[in-house]
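Subject: design request, 129 residues
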């Protein structure tokens, strides 16, 4: 066996350590990216889409009508409970059970129809648990 064939396939120790380090860094970055991409144990935020559905149910012509709040329970996500509160000035309308502190919350500013031709700024708040 010649002298050159005895060294074939060998790598300097520093190069081997650098290669193992680069492989470790690559696997760490990959694991982090996969962990971020997969669904975790955090509950999905359902309050914002529910708020949109509730707003569609109670709004006509860009004005929320308090009398239409009876329609909101159909907007609740499957298996979830819903509380809807509409406020305008010192007036407040609520539908649904009292929510726990852990309930997801979303709200938006709306125009509230208070009668024939009377519109007042208000807030529509949805709590889902």
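Subject: RE: design request

Done. Sequence follows.
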């Amino acid at each position: 066996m010649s002298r050159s064939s005895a060294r074939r396939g060998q790598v300097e120790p520093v190069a081997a350590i650098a290669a193992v380090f680069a492989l470790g860094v690559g696997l760490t970055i990959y694991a982090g990216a996969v962990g971020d991409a997969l669904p975790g144990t955090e509950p999905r935020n359902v309050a914002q889409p529910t708020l949109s559905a509730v707003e569609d149910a109670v709004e006509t012509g860009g004005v929320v009508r308090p009398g239409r709040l009876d329609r909101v329970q159909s907007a609740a996500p499957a298996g979830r409970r819903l509380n809807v509160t509409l406020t305008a000035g010192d007036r407040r309308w609520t539908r649904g059970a009292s929510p726990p502190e852990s309930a997801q919350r979303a709200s938006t500013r709306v125009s509230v129809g208070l009668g024939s031709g009377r519109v007042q700024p208000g807030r529509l708040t949805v709590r889902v648990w």
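The two ends are 76 Å apart (CA to CA).
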